[in-house]
Amino acid sequence: MFKLHVVQAQFGDCLILQFGAPKTPRFILVDGGPPGNYAADVAPALDDIVGKQGKLDMVLLSHIDNDHIIGVLDLFSGIEDDDVSGRKRRVEVGGLWHNSFARTIDPAGEIFQRMQGLMQMAGTANLTMPLGMDAFYGVREGNRLRLLSQKLKISVNKAFSNDLIMVETAKRAIKLGPLELRIAGPNKADLGKLRKEWLEWLDRAEEKMSSAPAAAAMMDRSIPNLSSIVALAKCDSKTLLLTGDARGDHIINGLKSAGLAKGGKLHIDVLKVQHHGSRRNANPEFFAAVTADTYVISANGKYDNPDFDTLAWIVESARQRQRPIALVTTNETDSTRELQKKFKPPAYDYSLTSLAPGKHSLALTLSN
Asked: Which has the closest alpha carbon to 244: 203, 272, 220, 265?
């Protein structure tokens, strides 16, 4: 059995993988969504799917953006409260996969210090830089999660050397019963590129903040990505690619360096579309190289995600391949409605399903 439960996460991400024997299923939580999402949807979904006081084999945090990490923090804080109150834990957690900002992009601590200074300058000038602020707070929340994990005796990155999950530290598949996980990102080369992009962005943002603060605030839209864990999950010969918010070119590079993309191409059963369907992280070439039968997008229209262009690239790529596909979204948005008007599902041979309002999750069955 292999199922993917797509949990309502509004503008963030939250997934639950279910695998193993139907009578004794096993579970992995992938990300936890933004502030408020744990109480609203993650906790009820865990109760329904995993069961009260059940067990997660693992929590996989793709990266530390607030729309991914806060729900995980709320879960771990709830477990801590259970311990303090003498209650049985609401859920047992077998381990955590989580790359720290320091280990991936900022080993010297320079980027975080400069981000802190930039955010302070923006505050003094009464400027808003929401994406920069999310990244800044995400670093702090990531550190907090690690401290909580230590307190709760939940192991972090146990299967990986140097406390770092990347292609070079995961040469073999990690097996959890019948489930195999292959790490396809980040890799060492792309981490170096991201580090360089951050330093160059900070150079420009600091210069603008000193000379033209309003222009610095506009640069918030071009803030570099944080590094995401990319993993290929395989069970019962079915495959699912978990992408976090990784850039499309980094995903392809990671798949190649992990030996998973033959000729630079990969077809999987389910693709969790990266970065909520943002066009910043994909292009037509990506969807020509990485193809799927089902595409899952978690977004609610915030920051214009999913972008109409991304949806169009997906259905156009499938039409060129002459293969029917399914699109699954957590919410109807302006862009999904526009897609159905401009790219009629019968003509382009796709279906579009959205999580029903008020429902906590939607299940995709890959194998029974």
From this structure: 272
What values do phi and psi take at 271, rounded to 5? -115, 120
Q: How far apart are CA 136 and CA 113, in angstroms?
A: 10
Question: Looking at residue 155, what DSSP letter applies?
Answer: -
For residues 75 and 70, what is the distance between their CA atoms, to the nearest angstrom?
Answer: 9
What is the token pair recorded at 284? Answer: 């037509």
66: three-class secondary structure by DSSP: helix
pTM above 0.85, yes or no: yes
The DSSP code for 265 is: B
3-state secondary structure of 235: strand
The CA-atom distances, in angstroms, between 17 and each of 50, 53, 58, 240, 245 are: 10, 17, 10, 10, 18
Going by pLDDT thresholds of 50, 70 and 90, the confidence category of residue 171 is confident
**Bridge partners for 47 per DSSP:** none
How far lies 249's CA from each of 107, 187, 267, in Å? 23, 12, 16
Return d(Cα 148, Cα 150) in angstroms, integer. Answer: 5
How far is residue 194's CA from residue 207's CA, in Å, rounded to a whole number?
20
Q: Can you give the CATH number for the domain in which 128 is found? A: 3.60.15.10
| Beta partners for residue 354, in sequence order | 329
Q: Please state the domain count of the chain.
A: 1
Convert the pLDDT of each residue in 130-153 to its tens digit. 888 888 888 999 999 999 999 999
Residues 6+ apart with CB under 8 A from 30: 13, 14, 15, 16, 17, 59, 60, 62, 242
Structure tokens at 152: 């709760």
Packing angle of the helix pair 188-211, 248-257 (nearest 10 deg): 160
Residue-wise pLDDT for 311-323, tens only, equals: 999 999 999 999 9
Domain limits for position 117: 2-367
On the CB side of 148, CA atoms within 13 Å amount to: 23
